[in-house]
Amino acid sequence: MSxxxxxxxxxxxxxxxxxxxxxxxxxxxxxxxxxxxxxxPAKRELAAATYPGVPVYADYLAMLDGGEIDAVxxxxxxxxxxxxGIAALSRDIHALVEKPAGVxxxxxxxxxxxxxxxxxxxxxxxxxxxxxxxxxxxxxxxxNGEIGAIRRSxxxxxxxxxxxxxxxxxxxxxxxxxxxxxxxxxxxxxxLDLWQWICGVPKSxxxxxxxxxxxxxxxxxxxxxxxxxxxxxxxxFVTATHDMIGTDRFEILGDQGKIVVEGSxxxxxxxxxxxxxELSDSMGMEDVMRLFTGQLNMxxxxxxxxxxxxxxxxxxxAGVLENFAANVLDGTPLLAPGSDGINGVxxxxxxxxxxxxxxxxxxxxxxxxxxSLLNDHIRTEGKYPERA
Amino acid sequence: MSxxxxxxxxxxxxxxxxxxxxxxxxxxxxxxxxxxxxxxPAKRELAAATYPGVPVYADYLAMLDGGEIDAVxxxxxxxxxxxxGIAALSRDIHALVEKPAGVxxxxxxxxxxxxxxxxxxxxxxxxxxxxxxxxxxxxxxxxNGEIGAIRRSxxxxxxxxxxxxxxxxxxxxxxxxxxxxxxxxxxxxxxLDLWQWICGVPKSxxxxxxxxxxxxxxxxxxxxxxxxxxxxxxxxFVTATHDMIGTDRFEILGDQGKIVVEGSxxxxxxxxxxxxxELSDSMGMEDVMRLFTGQLNMxxxxxxxxxxxxxxxxxxxAGVLENFAANVLDGTPLLAPGSDGINGVxxxxxxxxxxxxxxxxxxxxxxxxxxSLLNDHIRTEGKYPERA
Lengths: 388, 388
Description:
homodimer; six-stranded parallel β-sheet
């Protein structure tokens, strides 16, 4: 292999087109465009005109067998990610799958099982927000125990505003059969990943999901989920695509501190000088009054750090591409191993399942039951074949 | 009756003591202290020494029959509010009950039914935060339809920090038999009232409640509730008493705008120039890109108003006392009619019931079932008699 990874881009839509541009412009120094596949003749013409000399395919399998690429990135509807990942890996081609890793855990587990048989190959997922310095820092703070064990986390992430025209732009969008869901499978996978990456994987979830609530779509445009990590530790997650003045507020309360993130930009980290229970045990009602009336010197109890981050959206994606290429070239650890992709899919599936059943669902839910209910929706919709 | 209402204060503890002070200092111009009752001899000595000339009783019924008062305020453990309210009203004495109106809806409904037979008497509840100019303004904005129909509301209110010493300060505190619950019945009733006052009464609730989570108490010190108003409209409510760096963030999303309240002080009100769905229907993916890259001129779509409020805590209580006295004297409408008290109790009961049953509970839950389960907790605790 050369010193640069030759990437095969499957799908020259919004994401694939952006990655091609980043690579062509040198934003990913250890990667070159090896080939491009698109099923749409217009996109293939565009590819040939924009990237002269780059082989263009109509069929990704032909590209995999063409010998011009070392790796692929799967910029196609979510359902296709697992099978394309497996097809690449089975030909000893490294695979970077777009998020989400798939639509249902059963297919993602198959991808993960297959990838585990090819440990010599790189298998990554495009969780570009893991490359956001803010979230990297938060993960460090939590893992270092700087705020103690987590008591509760709450994320309201409604900055995913999408007008009706967005939904009308592609036939597969916001369908059960073509996309497999709405905000949970398209926009929120980033936060479903980050949340679990930083706060851990919950044991169960109860969710209220509003389908076609304020958009003319079959799938969900609003979600409210409560998760349970066991031992009284809980969390909430609220997301929507119809909030034009979106909120992005993430709060993590720990046994010895707290983190509040506003707008994915500013993190206010409070570190208590002692565990909160120790402080609590030594204080009484007069201290509450002093706290309320501003007479308690909070510096005696805690420190506050405000961290400002300025993350450029494109740089995150380019960074993941570069990290993936580095993993291929010299084994640099992956920021987002492909096998992590199943966590976000599992939580999204559990949220759908909870709303369909009207009850709390364990994260160890029956995958076949989920798929069967998903297929009920696909059948009723009548636009796409059922999934197996 | 004179031009001032003679109030009988039942219980000279924290709240009763504060009201006595406010009245004695002239903060409630249309009210005087008529008499004081406390079962604790030390408190009676304190009352006699602090308010010379004011009759002091050991038994509130004797005070009711003493002829020195026109009205009472019930500053006693929550369970006692309904029976004391009824005892006063039955003697044609006006009643201002402390919040919560009671511990379980069955007893509060009895109070409400009795009060309805005495429409000539004033019957109020101490929801002092309804007298906070911020929440009064929010209610107006929502009722005027300035942000359209509500889509979702989320309140994280964890500024109710209470150290262990607070819980240890009275034997009845944080017990099932003496207090009837934790943060839901003691601290959060204000927000349970304001939330429903502004956003309406939900149809059902699902809750995760952590009992004795980070305090040595039998009752709840943390609550996460998801409510459903029907037709896809939802809300969340998170409260706790163990967050030293408490959050108070209330967000209401409407069909034509949004309100975000921070710290019960700053309200950011966004009003869309058209209903969001109309805007959505005329926009496409290119507008999303323009929005993300800051190229969309938001002034074309909305206005933003930031309202700062500075509400003095004591002034709220004094204002409710004054409003109640005005209702007695000249029929000025009550800010907080006593009959409204049942809403907060009902939601708190439903939250407990949901957590005990591990399922979603309608707000029309079976009151007898709730009381029976509450009595199970009282029996297990073994400190107080069961309730009927």
